[in-house]
Amino acid sequence: MIAGPCAVESSERMDAIASAVKAAGADILRSGAYKPRTSPYSFQGMGEDGLKILRETGDKYAMPVVTEITDPRNVEIVAKYSDMLQVGARNMQNFVLLTEIGQTRKPVLLKRGMSATINDLLMSAEYILSQGNPNVVACERGVKGFDPITRNIFDVAAVPAFKALSHLPIIVDPSHATGRPDLIPPCALAGVAAGADGVHIEVHNCPEEALSDGPQALLPDKYADLAKQIRQLARLVGKQTTTIAGEE
Ligand code: PEP
Ligand code: MN
Question: Which of 40, 61, 102, 118 allows an S-S link to 22, with CB 3.0 to 4.6 Å?
Fold first, then answer.
């Protein structure tokens, strides 16, 4: 269970969101300090200051942290602050980046490119594995579609299809796949039912003030309800989950 705001915005905001997702049972705290934005005029992330905030907050709540790396020149600095390196959809075929990351032994969250086939995703994983880093987790985050009603098309069949071809774990990201908070719960549960090994969700306590991906952010109380359902379903399909005191 990976959760947190799209971007690091301030230590106060990170603290409030981390406290909420930790209480809801999230295992790993996520947030971006280097944001790959479609427009160069959009908020690009806080950089190293953001990494420091994420690290401090993760330590405070005893949560490992994952953050996106967009530039092979930043491997050292991002690896210094983060427990897991995220390769975003836009960089899934940045082979220089993948090769550099493969030379570390950090776990990698490798997101499927928005127009990438499952074989493309596997080959990108191979770029990391072939450098000696075996710690790759793939992530289905939706592929480009034709219908603006959803941000992307959530390819739920990609989960079992990927598993049929690879021993690597694969998780789902219904936030970027759908772009809509109301569609996140059903798609998260569909992903778990299809065999996903984890769920990555963006959570924000004040989406209207978020500096990126506000419209798709799930509010903390909605995340808490969903997290409970995810754990119940995950156990039903034979997965191990975090146990929460007092929960069935
Ligand atoms: C993100 O996780 O905030 C992100 C940019 O995701 P993606 O690379 O899947 O678009
Ligand atoms: Mn995002």
Answer: 61
In 10 A of CB 195, how many CB atoms? 16
Delimit the domains of the chain by residue range.
Answer: 2-236
Tokens of 175: 């936030």
Burial classification of residue 89, based on how many CB atoms lie within 10 Å of its CB (0-12 exposed, 13-18 middle, 19 or more buried): buried
**Global pTM exceeds 0.85:** yes
- Distance (angstroms) between ligand 2 centre and the Cα of 23 equals 22
Specify the fold of 2-236: TIM Barrel (3.20.20)
Say how far residue 177 (Cα) sits from the centre of its chain.
11
**Integer Cα distance of 165 and 83 in angstroms:** 27
* CA of 86, nearest ligand number: 1
Residue whose Cα lies nearest atom 4 of ligand 1: it is 88
pLDDT tens by residue, 135-157: 999 999 999 999 999 999 999 99
- Expressed in angstroms and rounded, the spacing between residue 229 Cα and the centre of ligand 1 is 24
Tokens of 220: 């903390």
Given a contact cutoff of 8 angstroms between Cβ atoms, the answer to whether 84 and 109 are in contact is: yes
